[in-house]
TrEMBL record:
Keyword Zinc: no
Residue intervals of the G-protein coupled receptors family 1 profile domain: 44-293
Annotated organism of origin: Naja naja (Indian cobra)
Record-given protein name: G-protein coupled receptors family 1 profile domain-containing protein
GO cellular component: plasma membrane
Pfam family, one: 7tm_4
Length: 311
């Protein structure tokens, strides 16, 4: 019903996604490139999920959250990339108003969930390093499930607010979105109404949903760093910090691009530049996550070797 309400306020029934280059040869190259990248994202993150599922040594809170992250990355990319691939083969690159609304909502839901999940993973590392004696009791199976469910609930709840503020605006034309999917900044450019309130709301939500988890991550690592510095042996320090480096790397990659997109003045909007940043946290981040975690993680590499030997 809500989706119909948004649609009735607009004379536009569908949008045209301009995507990337209009040259046929370039589109064919991009189709092959993005198809390979999408397959790698699905296979890489799917492998992480499967290894965690079948190897009992990985049935720990840290890998439970990592499996959630891998599932998020697959879902995240699957929200935009299959449509992008189809549009690279078609002359008419359209998406219905309701389809655009659904894509925006799902994309935002998964993105916000990932932000919160990164904070949960930092909290897990904080407990493991700073309070090892209480770690097992504080990170019980039920506690981990509640944290994961809470992350997903935050994502889908706040995304509804974000989407409703965008799609309730009237869209009278033009209907060409200079992007490869329905992202908020690109959609707001087409509204035939004053978007100042939306820009303020989007900025405030961006601060809350990005800076709050990021602040918790920074605080967690400040305590972790303080604990690591108290460890006397260099080997002990390295072992403690090595469990955090993968998480720090992926957080830096994800938050850097996301903060640029959702925490900057509307006057700085540049469609061509924004498409590149969207590709980064939509495609590159999801592609690199399994590589970063597997290459820097002995347990994951051990589980992979064991699985390959069984096969």
């Amino acid at each position: 019903a809500q989706g119909l309400l948004w649609e009735n306020k607009s004379s536009v029934s569908e949008f045209i996604l301009l995507g990337f280059s209009a040259k046929l040869q370039t589109q064919r190259f991009l189709f092959a490139l993005f198809l390979v990248l999408y397959v790698m994202i699905v296979l890489g993150n799917g492998l992480i999920i499967n290894l965690i599922r079948i190897d009992s040594r990985l049935h720990t809170p840290m890998y439970f959250f990592l499996a959630n992250l891998s599932f998020l990355d697959i879902s995240y990319s699957s929200t935009t990339m299959p449509q992008m691939l189809i549009h690279l083969l078609l002359k008419r690159k359209t998406i219905s108003f309701s389809g655009c609304t659904a894509q925006m909502y799902i994309f935002l839901s998964l993105g916000i969930t990932e932000c919160v999940l990164y904070a949960v993973m930092a909290y897990d590392r904080y407990l493991a390093i700073c309070h090892p004696l209480h770690y097992t009791s504080m990170m019980s199976k039920s506690s981990c499930v509640k944290m994961a469910v809470g992350s997903w609930a935050c994502g889908f709840l706040f995304a509804m607010l974000h989407t409703s503020f965008t799609m309730r605006l009237p869209y009278c034309g033009p209907n060409e979105i200079n992007h490869f999917f329905c992202e908020v900044p690109a959609i707001l450019e087409l509204a035939c109404a004053d978007t100042h309130v939306n820009e303020v709301v989007d900025f405030v939500l961006g601060v809350i949903l990005l800076m709050t988890p990021l602040s918790l991550i920074v605080i967690s690592y400040m305590f972790i760093l303080g604990t690591i510095l108290k460890i006397r042996s260099a080997e002990g320090k390295f072992k403690a910090f090595s469990t955090c480096t993968s998480h720090i790397t992926v957080v830096t990659l994800f938050y850097g691009a996301a903060m640029f997109m959702y925490m900057r003045p509307a006057s700085n909007y540049n469609p061509e530049r924004d498409k590149k940043f969207s590709l980064f946290y939509n495609v590159v981040s999801a592609l690199l996550n399994p590589c970063i975690y597997s290459l820097r993680n002995k347990e994951i590499k051990g589980a992979l070797c064991k699985w390959v030997c069984i096969q």
